[in-house]
Amino acid sequence: TPALIAPQKADGNLGGFLDILPQILGRHFRKRQLSLQIRGLQKDLKNRMQNDTKKREEEASQGHKEGKVLRKLLSFRRSVIPPSSVAVKIPPKKLASPNERRKAVIDAFSHAWKGYRAFAWGHDELKPLSESFNEVFGFGGLGLTLIDALDTMWIMGLQNEFEEAKKWVLEELHFDKNVEVNLFEITIRILGGLLSTYHLSGDSLFLEKAKDLGHRLMPAFRTPSKIPYSHVNIGTGVTDPHELFSPVAAVTSIQLEFRELSRLTGDETFQEAVREVMKHIHSLPGKNDGLVPMHVNTRSGFFTLVNAFTLGANTDSYYECLLKQWIQGGKKESQLLEDYIEAIEGVKKHLLRQSRVRNLTFVGELVGGRFEAKMDHYVCFLPGTLALGVHHGLTNDHMELAKALMETCYQMYHQFKSGLSPENVYFHINPRVIRKDMRVRPQDNFNVLRPETVESLFYLYRFTGDKKYQDWGWEILQCFNKYSRIPSGGYDFLSLDKYVFNTEAHPLPIWTSA
């Protein structure tokens, strides 16, 4: 069990976040042997963390007062607030042969795809209850679901469905539309989906579409700080200069796609833009032992909301993509590895705790200098990321932490009657008579089919061979089918030594030369 260290007080500067609260709530939201390199980094980080802690203790003064307001903001980080839950029954646990499980996964995809094809073809999203559609990217949409699913259909061997979708891309997908898009969402889903499908199928159609889209997104990076705006019009190139704040995760999780686009096209413009972002974030003050605040000012380039640290919404994929960029680039960019290792040490120091009943290891939040025993479902990306790092040469203590957190993420499903995880949970950590590890607030008592837990189960099973992770995933799939499936609506051949998945699970190749 990892040693748990009491949190230090966080920086006390709110960074003027009261002024930007309406805007935030209004948006949708050197080469060495690896082991020697890591040991050297850990020694440097230990010294740096000691100095940083002393500095923070001298500067922090307003944490408790500001924490009340920060908690209010954190409570609004929701994309969906569903109607009240209905009563549910405990689903039966049914084991199945691996072949039957593969078929069930393909069937689940095919069922959803048929609903999309029937009621939302060419549009962004299916609205299954009303048998209609929703446009995420403005009037007419961009076929978001269709493009997001292309590589999945290819991997599953659904060739007829793939060819039909490819025909739509060829004839109907055009980016010369007067629509404002979210840079993060369109990059990880559409740009990432096109690049991944190009690599899997070898069809240049998808690369040409990706190149066109990439050029249309570049105006978002034209800011005084080089931190991109969150939104850009892909038809006109217009951005909103009054959009001053971007989520840290949103500007640091798009690097895999733009880097790969440069590698494929020979145009360094894409890679240089996202590289500047990472260099800037690396050098910024305001971190807490590698942990980053939630937002960054596109004009000044400084962090805002600097008294809240979480691995949940607005920061989660920053940590994930540090490691994945390092892997993608052939493990040659030591700055990325340094930032990743420092951040994991920061998690251990400030955010890691255990519940009272089953001693479940979880990752909480630091708000206004106070620890909150709250864990978002988003945080369940971390077990898989830790395991991926160990597979690529990082120290085995990361795998032990990955296993402990994977157990917790599974229990976030297993301990609830529906077998589905709430949006977030609060863990019991105080010494009092209790029977449960976690509780859920009424406003968090919903599930929106988030992928973090099942993706982490995929990594843990791949790297350990322990069938329990496969069984847990099967159990969760059964519960999704039981409670989330309505009438309207993988195969193991991708090597994790050759591919790295972006934050939307689109596989991109690891570079073998640079």
Automatic annotation (TrEMBL):
Pfam families: Glyco_hydro_47. It catalyses: N(4)-(alpha-D-Man-(1->2)-alpha-D-Man-(1->2)-alpha-D-Man-(1->3)-[alpha-D-Man-(1->2)-alpha-D-Man-(1->3)-[alpha-D-Man-(1->2)-alpha-D-Man-(1->6)]-alpha-D-Man-(1->6)]-beta-D-Man-(1->4)-beta-D-GlcNAc-(1->4)-beta-D-GlcNAc)-L-asparaginyl-[protein] (N-glucan mannose isomer 9A1,2,3B1,2,3) + 4 H2O = N(4)-(alpha-D-Man-(1->3)-[alpha-D-Man-(1->3)-[alpha-D-Man-(1->6)]-alpha-D-Man-(1->6)]-beta-D-Man-(1->4)-beta-D-GlcNAc-(1->4)-beta-D-GlcNAc)-L-asparaginyl-[protein] (N-glucan mannose isomer 5A1,2) + 4 beta-D-mannose; N(4)-(alpha-D-Man-(1->2)-alpha-D-Man-(1->2)-alpha-D-Man-(1->3)-[alpha-D-Man-(1->3)-[alpha-D-Man-(1->2)-alpha-D-Man-(1->6)]-alpha-D-Man-(1->6)]-beta-D-Man-(1->4)-beta-D-GlcNAc-(1->4)-beta-D-GlcNAc)-L-asparaginyl-[protein] (N-glucan mannose isomer 8A1,2,3B1,3) + 3 H2O = N(4)-(alpha-D-Man-(1->3)-[alpha-D-Man-(1->3)-[alpha-D-Man-(1->6)]-alpha-D-Man-(1->6)]-beta-D-Man-(1->4)-beta-D-GlcNAc-(1->4)-beta-D-GlcNAc)-L-asparaginyl-[protein] (N-glucan mannose isomer 5A1,2) + 3 beta-D-mannose. Disulfide bonds join 380-409. This is alpha-1,2-Mannosidase. One of its GO terms (biological process) is carbohydrate metabolic process. InterPro entries: 6hp_glycosidase-like_sf, Glyco_hydro_47, Glycosyl_Hydrolase_47, Seven-hairpin_glycosidases. It is found in: Endoplasmic reticulum membrane. The keyword Disulfide bond applies. It is a single-pass type II membrane protein. It is an enzyme of class 3 (hydrolase). Pathway: Protein modification; protein glycosylation. The active site is at 185 (proton donor), 316, 423 (proton donor), 452. Its EC number is 3.2.1.-. Its main location: endoplasmic reticulum. Residues 45-65 are annotated as: Disordered. Keywords: Calcium, Disulfide bond, Endoplasmic reticulum, Glycosidase, Hydrolase, Membrane, Metal-binding, Signal-anchor, Transmembrane, Transmembrane helix. The keyword Nucleotide-binding does not apply. One of its GO terms (molecular function) is mannosyl-oligosaccharide 1,2-alpha-mannosidase activity. Its cofactor is Ca(2+). Belongs to the glycosyl hydrolase 47 family. GO terms for cellular component: endoplasmic reticulum membrane. Involved in glycoprotein quality control targeting of misfolded glycoproteins for degradation. It primarily trims a single alpha-1,2-linked mannose residue from Man(9)GlcNAc(2) to produce Man(8)GlcNAc(2), but at high enzyme concentrations, as found in the ER quality control compartment (ERQC), it further trims the carbohydrates to Man(5-6)GlcNAc(2). It comes from Loxodonta africana.
